Amino acid sequence: MGTSKQFIEYVTGQIKDAGIITYRKMFGEYALYSNNKVVALICDNQFFAKPIPQITEFVGDCEMAPPYPGAKNHYLITDQLEDTQWISELIRISERYLPERKPKKPKKI
């Protein structure tokens, strides 16, 4: 099915106060960035948060599912997506505790 442009714009609007929010289309779906860190995946118009211990504490008993076939389970955020404060805090926690992106290795010639 794929994620609609309207959905990714809705999500970024909900978390606009959680840092520098950007997204990048990857394989027909989206990676969501906060301050240059991938904090979530948006696949098939669904929001998937990375499963790190700090998020586990925050989300409590939350459904987990793979964002795409073959992927590890992530937290599937549904109803809370409408709560701007809650989803923004989720993004802030994720950004705070996720590691920095690894620099790309130079291409060998």
Characterise the protein shown here.
With 109 residues, the protein is an alpha+beta fold. It has one domain: Yope Regulator, Chain: A (2-Layer Sandwich), CATH 3.30.1460.30. It contains 3 helices and 6 strands. It has helices at residues 5-14, 53-59, 84-97, and strands spanning 21-26, 29-34, 37-43, 46-49, 64-65, 74-77. It has a 6-stranded antiparallel sheet with strand order 1-2-3-4-6-5. Strand 1 (21-26) and strand 2 form a beta hairpin. The termini are far apart.
Strands, helices and their partners?
Blueprint lengths: L4 H10 L6 E6 L2 E6 L2 E7 L2 E4 L3 H7 L4 E2 L8 E4 L6 H14 L12
Antiparallel strand pairs: 1-2, 2-3, 3-4, 4-6, 5-6
Helix pairs in contact: 2-3
Can I get a quick summary?
The chain has helices at 5-14, 53-59, 84-97; strands at residues 21-26, 29-34, 37-43, 46-49, 64-65, 74-77.
Overview features:
6 strands, 3 helices, about 110 residues, Yope Regulator, Chain: A, alpha+beta
List how many beta strands DSSP finds.
6
User: Mean pLDDT, as a whole number?
Assistant: 90
Strand order of the largest sheet: 1-2-3-4-6-5
How helical, in percent, are the residues? 25-40%
Backbone structural class: alpha+beta
Radius of gyration: 14 Å
**N-C termini distance:** 38 Å
Q: Tell me the number of structural domains.
A: 1
CATH superfamily: YgaC/TfoX-N like chaperone
What oligomeric state do the depicted chains represent? single chain
- What overall form do the CA principal axes indicate? globular
Please identify the top-level CATH class.
Alpha Beta
Question: In percent, how much strand structure appears in the residues?
Answer: 25-35%
Give the biggest sheet: 6 strands, antiparallel
CATH architecture: 2-Layer Sandwich
Number of helices: 3
The secondary-structure element order is HEEEEHEEH
Low-confidence stretches: none
Fill in the CATH topology.
Yope Regulator, Chain: A
